[in-house]
Structures are given as C-alpha cells and as structure tokens.
C-alpha cells in the first residue's frame, strides 16, 4: 500500500523543502533549543564539574532523563489512539526494536548493578508492552471510529 502522505490522525504532514514551508519554523526552533540544552549540558559536565565521580553521577542522571523521555514520547498520541480506536500512529517495528533494546540494556545494567543503565530502560519495557497491548486491542487495519 502507498504511504499515507497526509496522515491527519497522527498530526503528520509532508515536509517539502524547509525554506518553502512556513510551518517548519517552530520545528527548527525546537531543534535549536534542544541542541542548546545538549551543548549547555556538555559544557556543564566538562567545564564546571571537576570531580570525575561527581561528573559521572550527574551525567548518568542527565542521560537517564533523556532516555526516559525517549521511551515515553510515543505515548504522546495515546489519547488519539484511544479516541480513534486505531494504532495507525504507532510504528510496530519501532515498538519491537524499543522492546528488544530496552530489555537488553536493562539486563546489562542489572549484570553491572548500574542504576544509570537499568532504571531509565525499564520505562522502555513498560511502554513497549503497553504499545503491544494497543496493537492487540486496536488492530492496525481496523479503525473503529468510522
């Protein structure tokens, strides 16, 4: 089947060349803000935190927050999925990959007894299981809202 070029349900639209699309300004601004956060974080850890142990602990916490955010981000469309009774917004291959990656990192973290690896990857397992359940409850080819 042809890809859904203008998937209103998921809030996705085709993106032509950036200078020709007025709506892309906020996206670029958000990306620049996120890049600034990463640069500020890098600068903080390399320039202001001298003790290696403290640096590693704070860097672990910083990375954990981003990892947890990454695993929770696909659930932002959860209300749309439940309302439309459709999982067209969710990627099944990404769900499988997320489950395998987060499970393997969690097991690795458990072996090392490293909470900075284990803890942030547990939400990846939980959110993947929730998405698997959504795929089962709302089969992809079926849209119950219509």
Automatic annotation (TrEMBL):
| Entry's Gene Ontology cellular component terms | plasma membrane
> Could you tell me one molecular function GO term of this UniProt entry?
sugar transmembrane transporter activity
Q: Where are the transmembrane segments?
A: 27-47, 90-110, 116-138
Q: Where in the cell is it found?
A: Cell membrane
Keyword terms, alphabetized = Cell membrane, Membrane, Repeat, Sugar transport, Transmembrane, Transmembrane helix, Transport
Q: How does this protein lie in the membrane?
A: Multi-pass membrane protein
Q: Which domain of life is it from?
A: Eukaryota
Q: Tell me the PANTHER family matching this sequence.
A: RAG1-ACTIVATING PROTEIN 1, SUGAR TRANSPORTER SWEET1
Task: Name the family the entry cites.
Answer: Belongs to the SWEET sugar transporter family.
Give the protein's recorded name. Answer: Sugar transporter SWEET1
Name the source organism. Calypte anna (Anna's hummingbird)
């Amino acid at each position: 089947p042809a890809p859904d070029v203008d998937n209103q349900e998921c809030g996705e639209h085709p993106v032509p060349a950036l200078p020709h699309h007025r709506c892309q300004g906020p996206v670029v601004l958000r990306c620049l803000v996120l890049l600034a956060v990463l640069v500020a974080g890098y600068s903080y850890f390399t320039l202001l935190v001298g003790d290696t142990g403290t640096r590693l602990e704070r860097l672990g916490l910083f990375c954990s927050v981003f990892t947890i955010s990454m695993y929770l981000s696909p659930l932002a469309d959860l209300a749309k999925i439940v309302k439309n009774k459709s999982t067209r917004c969710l990627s099944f291959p990404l769900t499988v990959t997320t489950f395998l990656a987060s499970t393997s990192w969690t097991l690795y973290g458990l072996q090392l007894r490293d909470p900075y690896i284990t803890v942030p990857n547990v939400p990846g397992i939980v959110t993947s299981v929730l998405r698997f359940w959504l795929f089962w409850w709302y089969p992809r080819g079926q849209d119950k809202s219509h």
